[in-house]
C-alpha cells in the first residue's frame, strides 16, 4: 500500500485460520461466512480504492446474538474485527486487515419501528440512509442528513463517520439527528444508549459513539429523528466569474443571519463535469457556482431569496436563476449530487479530500489550493458544502502513471495542512480512517491523542476493533498515562508502531 503502514499481521492468527473459519461457521451457519478468495474479493477495499487488503475471513451476521457471539469469540481468541456497512467510506475506514475478520452488517436491513407522534424511526444499521426517508415520505416526513452517497451508504456507516450532506448546514450532521443506539462491545456485551426520550443522565456516550469509526463497538440498532418536509423549498443557481467572490458571498449570506437549507459550491472544473453528465442547466461560463436552497413558509422563502440576490449582486455575481418548480429544483441538485461520479468521467482516478475551515477563510484557501495545484502539477476540482466551510477538493490523477498517486497524496496532505493552518480541522464528515491517520499530529498534541486513546482503551483494551485506523501511533493501553520518553529511550520498545 502506497506510503501507509498498517499493523503487522499476527502470524499466530494467520496460522489458525481454518480453526477460526470453523468456529465462525458454528456461530453464523449457512452462507454467513465467506472464506474463499473470490467471495471475499468485493470486500478488499471501500471507496478509497487506492488501498486494498484481503481480509482473513468475511462474516455476515443476521442477529444481535450472532454479532455478540462473533465478537466474544474474537475477543477471547485475540482476533481483530473490522465492522463494515456498505463500503462507501472515502477515508478507508472499512479497509480490512489481513489477520482480521471483516464483519459486514448489510444483512441488518430491516425498518423496526416508525413512530410519527414521536417523530422517530428505529432501524437496523444496514438500512440505507435514503431508505429511512423512503419509509416515511408518504406522511410528509424525511431524514435530514443526506450524504451524496445516500442511495447506497448505511445508517450504521453514517453513525460511525458522523456523516453529513447538503442539508446539514441547517439541520445538522448525523450526531444532531440520532436519538438512540444499540451496540455490541468487543466483549460481546450489548448496551443501549439514548432513546426516544429527551436527554439522559450521565456521560453523553451517544454523542461519543457518533463518529467513532468502528473503533468502539458494532452498532446493531439506530433510532433517528425525522422531520416534517418544509412547506416550500426553492433553489437558486448563482454564478460568479471569480471563485473568491463566490467564497465571500457564502460568508456574507451567513453573516446576514440567513441559514439556507443548503449552500453548496462548485468550481469551473466540477460544474462543467456535472453539466456534461447530468445537463442540470448550469452556467458553463461561470468560474464558480453556488446552489442556495431556502426552505420554510412561502413568504419567508420569497423574502430570503430576494436578500440572497442582493448579497450575490454585491459580490459581483453575473448569473442568478431560481427554480420555478419542484422538478427544476431536483434537477439543480441532481448535478451537485452527481458531481463526484461526473469528475470520475474526466479523470482515470481522483482522491476526494475532506477538510473544514471557518467559512471566512474560503477565498484564502481556494487561492491557496490553486497554488498547490501548480506546485504538485495535478488538477483539482472543488465541490463542497460551502455553508459549513466543509471542502471536498477532488484531486485528479492517473494511478497508472508512476508517482501520480504519491503526488496526489502529498497534494491532499498539503490541503489538509492548509485547513488546519487557517483554523480548520482535518475532516468534516468522511472521518479519519487510514487516509488522514498520519496527519492527526498536525491537529492534535500528543496529550490530546493519548487522551483520545484512553477512551478507545476503555472500550477495547486489546485494540481488536478496526486496528490501524484513526490513531497514527499505537499505544498499548497499559502504558497510556505513564509513557515518558527519556533521552530518546522509548519505553515498551516491543510495541509495533506504524
Ligand atoms: C460518491 C460518494 C459520495 C459521498 N458523499 C458523502 C457526503 O456527501 N457526505 C458524507 O458524510 N459522506 C459521503 N460519502 C462517504 C460515505 O458514504 C460515508 O462515510 C458513509 O457514512 C459510509 O457508510 P457505509 O455504510 O458505506 O460505511 P462503510 O464504508 O462500510 O464503513 C465506514 C466506517 O463505518 C464503520 N461501520 C460501518 N458500519 C458499522 C456498524 N454497524 N457499527 C460500527 N461501525 C460501523 C466501519 O468500520 C468504517 O470505519 C460519500 C461516498 C461516496 C463514495
UniProtKB/TrEMBL annotation:
Keywords: FAD, Flavoprotein, Oxidoreductase
PROSITE patterns: FAD_PCMH
GO molecular function per UniProt: FAD binding; oxidoreductase activity
Domain FAD-binding PCMH-type: 51-229
InterPro entries recorded: FAD-bd_oxidored_4_C, FAD-bd_PCMH, FAD-bd_PCMH-like_sf, FAD-bd_PCMH_sub2, FAD-linked_Oxase-like_C, FAD-linked_OxidoTrans_Type4, Oxid_FAD_bind_N, Vanillyl_alc_oxidase_C-sub2
Gene3D superfamilies named among the record's database cross-references: 3.30.465.10, 3.30.70.2740, Vanillyl-alcohol Oxidase, Chain A, domain 4 (1.10.45.10)
TM regions (residue ranges): none
Cited SUPFAM superfamilies: FAD-binding/transporter-associated domain-like, FAD-linked oxidases, C-terminal domain
Pfam families: FAD-oxidase_C (PF02913), FAD_binding_4 (PF01565)
Keyword field contains Translocase: no
Cofactor(s) the protein requires to work: FAD
Protein name: Glycolate oxidase subunit GlcD
Biological source species: Pannonibacter phragmitetus
Amino acid at each position: 500500500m502506497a506510503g501507509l503502514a498498517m499493523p503487522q499481521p499476527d502470524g499466530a492468527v494467520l496460522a489458525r485460520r481454518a480453526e477460526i473459519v470453523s468456529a465462525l461457521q458454528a456461530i453464523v451457519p449457512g452462507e454467513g461466512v465467506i472464506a474463499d478468495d473470490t467471495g471475499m474479493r468485493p470486500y478488499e477495499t471501500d471507496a478509497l480504492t487506492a488501498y486494498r487488503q484481503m481480509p482473513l475471513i468475511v462474516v455476515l451476521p443476521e442477529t444481535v446474538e450472532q454479532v455478540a457471539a462473533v465478537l466474544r469469540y474474537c475477543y477471547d481468541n485475540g482476533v481483530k474485527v473490522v465492522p463494515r456497512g456498505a463500503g462507501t467510506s472515502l477515508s478507508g475506514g472499512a479497509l480490512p486487515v489481513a489477520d482480521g475478520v471483516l464483519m459486514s452488517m448489510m444483512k441488518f436491513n430491516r425498518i423496526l419501528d416508525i413512530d410519527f407522534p414521536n417523530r422517530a424511526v428505529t432501524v437496523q444499521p444496514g438500512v440505507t440512509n435514503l431508505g429511512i426517508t423512503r419509509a416515511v415520505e408518504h406522511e410528509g416526513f424525511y431524514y435530514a442528513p443526506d450524504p451524496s452517497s445516500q442511495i447506497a451508504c448505511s445508517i450504521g456507516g453514517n453513525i460511525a463517520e458522523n456523516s453529513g450532506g447538503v442539508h446539514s448546514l441547517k439541520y445538522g450532521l448525523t450526531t444532531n439527528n440520532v436519538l438512540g443506539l444499540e451496540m455490541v462491545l468487543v466483549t460481546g456485551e450489548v448496551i443501549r444508549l439514548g432513546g426516544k426520550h429527551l436527554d439522559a443522565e450521565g456521560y453523553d456516550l451517544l454523542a461519543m459513539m457518533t463518529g467513532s469509526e468502528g473503533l468502539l463497538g458494532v452498532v446493531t440498532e439506530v433510532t433517528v429523528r425525522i422531520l416534517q418536509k418544509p412547506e416550500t423549498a426553492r433553489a437558486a443557481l448563482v454564478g460568479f466569474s471569480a471563485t473568491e467572490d463566490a467564497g465571500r458571498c457564502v460568508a456574507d449570506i451567513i453573516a446576514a443571519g440567513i441559514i439556507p437549507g443548503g449552500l453548496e459550491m462548485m468550481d469551473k472544473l466540477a460544474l462543467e463535469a456535472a453539466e456534461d453528465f447530468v445537463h442540470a442547466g448550469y452556467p458553463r461560463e461561470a468560474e464558480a457556482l453556488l446552489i442556495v436552497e431556502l426552505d420554510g413558509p412561502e413568504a419567508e422563502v420569497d423574502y430570503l431569496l430576494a436578500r440572497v440576490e442582493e448579497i450575490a449582486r454585491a459580490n459581483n455575481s453575473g448569473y442568478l436563476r431560481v427554480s420555478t418548480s419542484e422538478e427544476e429544483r431536483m434537477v439543480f441538485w441532481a448535478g451537485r449530487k452527481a458531481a463526484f461520479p461526473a469528475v470520475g468521467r474526466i479523470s482515470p482516478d481522483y482522491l476526494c479530500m475532506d477538510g473544514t475551515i471557518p467559512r471566512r477563510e474560503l477565498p484564502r484557501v481556494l487561492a491557496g489550493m490553486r497554488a498547490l495545484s501548480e506546485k504538485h502539477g495535478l488538477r483539482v476540482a472543488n465541490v463542497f458544502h460551502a455553508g459549513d466551510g466543509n471542502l471536498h477538493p477532488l484531486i485528479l490523477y492517473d494511478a497508472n502513471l508512476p508517482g501520480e498517486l504519491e503526488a496526489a497524496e502529498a497534494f491532499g496532505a498539503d490541503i489538509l495542512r492548509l485547513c488546519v493552518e487557517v483554523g480548520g480541522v482535518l475532516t468534516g464528515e468522511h472521518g479519519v480512517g487510514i487516509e488522514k491517520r498520519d496527519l492527526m499530529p498536525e491537529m492534535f498534541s500528543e496529550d490530546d491523542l493519548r487522551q483520545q486513546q484512553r477512551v478507545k482503551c476503555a472500550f477495547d483494551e486489546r485494540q481488536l476493533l478496526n486496528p490501524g485506523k484513526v490513531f497514527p501511533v499505537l499505544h498499548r493501553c497499559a502504558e497510556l498515562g505513564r509513557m515518558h520518553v527519556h533521552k530518546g529511550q522509548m519505553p515498551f520498545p516491543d510495541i509495533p508502531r506504524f
